[in-house]
Amino acid sequence: MRQPGAQPVPAGSPARTGPGPVPRWRSSWAPWVVIFVVLTLTLAFGAFAPRDPSTPTEQVAEIAATVRCPTCSGESVAVSDADISKQIRLDIAQRLEQGQSPERIRAFYAERYGDNILLTPGASGLAGLIWAIPAAVLVLAVGGLVFAIRQRSGASRPHATEQDRALVADALGHSSGIGALPGEQATGPTPGVR
Description:
Blueprint: H1 24-48, H2 56-64, H3 83-97, H4 102-113, H5 128-155, H6 162-174
Helix pairs in contact: 2-3
C-alpha cells in the first residue's frame, strides 16, 4: 500500500527504504572517523594504561636496561658482565628498596656520569622532539593519504550538467518506444524514416 505523498518507484528500480539518501559527507567520512577514534583510543590505552606492579627483580632489569655501561661500548647495564655493571645493578636494587623512583635513580646516574649514560632520551626539551617527530610524521602521513584518496575519488565521479540532462530527456522523449510507458505511443520519427 502506497503512503500519501510518496513517489512511485519506477519498474526495475530497487525499492528504497529509510528516510532518504545518506549525505555524502557522512558516508565518506564515517569510516575514517571510526578508524581514527579506534586508533587513538588504542594508542592512548597502550601508552597510559597502568601496569601491574612488577617484582623487584623486574624493576631492576627495567631500569638497568635504560642505563649504559660506563666501561662497555654499546651495552646496557642489564646485559653487561663488567664489574661496574654488576655494582650498578646492586645499587639500583638498593635504591628501589629505599623507595626511590625509577626516574630519580636514572637522574642520579645522569648526574654522576652525564646524560650520555642514559639509553632512552627524556621526554622534555629538545630530547622530547625525538618522541614527538615520529608521531607528527604519522599524523601527517595519514592525513596526506586521506586527502589523496578523497581527491582521487572526487575526481572520478562524473557530474551531469543541465545540457547532459536535456540530451537524455530529448533522447528518451523522441525515441521509438524507448522510455514510453505501456499503453502510450512514443512521439518522434518512426524507425527507419528520416
